[in-house]
Amino acid sequence: xxxxxxxxxxxxxxxxxxxxxxxxxxxxxxxxxxxxxxxxxxxxxxxxxxxxxxxxxxxxxxxxxxxxxxxxxxxxxxxxxxxxxxxxxxxxxxxxxxxxxxxxxxxxxxxxxxxxxxxxxxxxxxxxxxxxxxxxxxxxxxxxxxxxxxxxxxxxxxxxxxxxxxxxxxxxxxxxxxxxxxxxxxxxxxxxxxxxxxxxxxxxxxxxxxxxxxxxxxxxxxxxxxxxxxxxxxxxxxx
Length: 239
What we know:
- The chain has helices at about 1-35, 45-60, 85-95, 95-115, 120-140, 145-180, 185-195, 200-235, and strands spanning about 65-70, 80.
- By secondary structure, it is an all-alpha fold.
- The chain has a two-stranded antiparallel sheet with strand order 1-2.
- Helix 1 (about 1-35) packs antiparallel against helix 4.
- The chain starts with a helix and ends with a helix.
């Protein structure tokens, strides 16, 4: 039974990852057609790979700098700054590069640290990170200005908050409970200790995961917005 559960989880990871990547690719093609230029050409592919590797490495390092928000969510939810370089990289190279960097970041963390969450935490970090990075990158690349960058960060944060709530309630938390052996009631008790209105998995996702992702997205967005004026020439000259 455990083997079947693990295989079904692996299949779900592959399917969802492919869906996210091809959705990013479809929007990237639309952006390329609108702007009249490709994100990567034969001359720039090597340069782009170097940039992806560099930002991924920085992102992995930043994952070690994390902290909880105990007034919002249980302490196993921790804010880190790894999405900052990935967002910047996606602003430079497009949404597909953002998906690739999110995937590489979590694969490298698995190699370096292993998993303490039956791989569910790493997949959650990947997919929720994509909910932020991909929409933000798509919105930004339709018209690359400071105002559009701010709008894109707001859109990405909204997507990450809403998508994180739905995915945690419907799939991630039940799957973590199933694979790791922690009863769902444990999550609910931890959430109820923070917010008395938490009484099931859905209210846990809405009242703990939602505010956590909203604050994380806001923190990351403020940092990227602060850095934007210093990086704008680099971002616009990346193609």
